[in-house]
Amino acid sequence: MLSKPKVFALGFQHVMAMYAGAIAVPFIVGGALGLTETQIAYLIAADLFTCGLATLLQVLRIKYFGSGLPVVLGCTFTAVGPIIAIASTSNLATAYGAIILSGLFVVLFAPLYGKLLRFFPTVVTGTVVTIIGLTLIPVAMNNAAGGQGSADFGAPHNLLLALITLIVILLFNRLGKGFLRVVSVLVGLAVGTAAGYFMGIVDFSGVGQASLFSIAKPFYFGVPEFSIVAVLTMIIVNIVSMVESTGVYLAVGRATDQKVEQKQIVNGLRSEGAAIVLGGIFNAFPYTAFSQNVGLITLTRVKTRNVIFAAGIIMVVLGLLPKLAALTTVIPNAVLGGAMIVMFGSVAASGISILSEVDLRKEGNLLIAACSIAVGLGSAAVPQMFDTLPEWSKMLLQSGIVTGSLTAVILNLIFSARSGSSKEQVSDLSGGHAPQEA
C-alpha cells in the first residue's frame, strides 16, 4: 500500500509526463489567433483545470461514465488545426460551440462505436499499440533536439541534456530500489532541469509574471455560436480521437495485466465526450487519452488508480494556481525529450510484446501487422502526401494511428473471411491469451 506522499509524487510524475503536450496546444492556438498574453494564460489555466476534471471523470468509474482504468486525459493535437481554421474564419465562440456539440456526439455515439470493438483481435491490438509508440518517437526526438522550430534545434547542449536525462532514468530504473526506481522519470526530469539551469538555459521569468490565482470561467470568449460545417469538422476530429483512445485503453490494459471489457471502453469514451463538453464550456479543448502516461505505467509498473486520481487533483490545483503551473514550464524541451524516449519506446515495446503472442508464421497475421505498421508510420512520417485531398479526409488520413488501425481492421476482416474463421475472431481487448488466427 503506497503512502499518501508516495501517491502524490507518482501522480506528479504523471503530470510532468503529459505537461508539455497539455500546455503546447493553448500556446499554439493562442499564438496562431493573435490572442493577448492574458488570454493565452487563461487558456493554459483553463486547460489544466479541465484536464484534471477530465482525468478524474475517467478514473472514477460509475454506471455510464469512466473506464476505471489508470488513464490520463489531455487535449488532442488533432484539434489544433481545425480550431484555428474555424476561429480564423468566424470566431472562437463558433469553435467552442462546435466543441460542445461534438462532445455530445461522442457521448451518444460511444455505444455504437463499442460494437465495432469485436474487430480488434490480438493481432490488431498489438499492431495498433505498436503504431502508437512508433509514431510518437519522432516527437520525442524533436524535443530531445530542443523542440521543432526552436532557434537552437540540434544544439550540443540540447542533445547533452536529453542524454543526461535518459541516462539518469535508466540508472535509477536499473539500480534504484523500491520507490526510487518507481520515480525514475521524475528524478530524471529534476536532474536534467538542474543541469539546464547550470547551463543557463532555464528561464524563471514566466513564473514571476504569472498570476497567483485564477478560476476558469464558463464562456470566457463569449456565448457559444453554432455552424454546421464547424460542428461536422469537430465531430471528425473526435472520431479520430476515439480511435486513438481505443488504442491507449488497450495498451493500458496490457500494462496493468487486465482484460479491458467493451463496456469499459464505451464508458471511457463517454467520459471523453463529457470532458470535451466541459472543454467547450470552459473555453479549453477537446480531450483524449494520453499515450505517454501508458509508457510511464509500463516503466514504473505502478498500476493503481489512486496515482492517476492524484494526478487529476494536481492538474486541477495547477489550473487554479497559474504561478505554480508556470514553475513546471521551466523544464527544457530537451529534458522532456530524453524522458519521452523511454516512455514512448516502452509503448512500442508493449505492442511488440502483444504481437509476440500472435503466430506471425501464418501469412494473414504477418501481412496484417506488416502492412498496418507500414501504412501507419508512413502516414505519420509523410502527412503531406494527403495535402490534395478534401480537408475532412486529411484529418483522418494524416493520423498514423487512424490509418494503421483501419488497415489492421480491414485486413483482419479480409483474411478472416478467406479462412472462414470470422466467427472465431472473438476480440480479446487487452491482448490476452485467446488464440487469434487469420
UniProtKB/TrEMBL annotation:
It is a multi-pass membrane protein. Keywords: Cell membrane, Membrane, Transmembrane, Transmembrane helix, Transport. Its main location: membrane. Pfam families: Xan_ur_permease (PF00860). It comes from the Bacteria. PANTHER family: PURINE PERMEASE C1399.01C-RELATED, URIC ACID TRANSPORTER UACT. This is Nucleobase:cation symporter-2 family protein. It comes from Paenibacillus terreus.
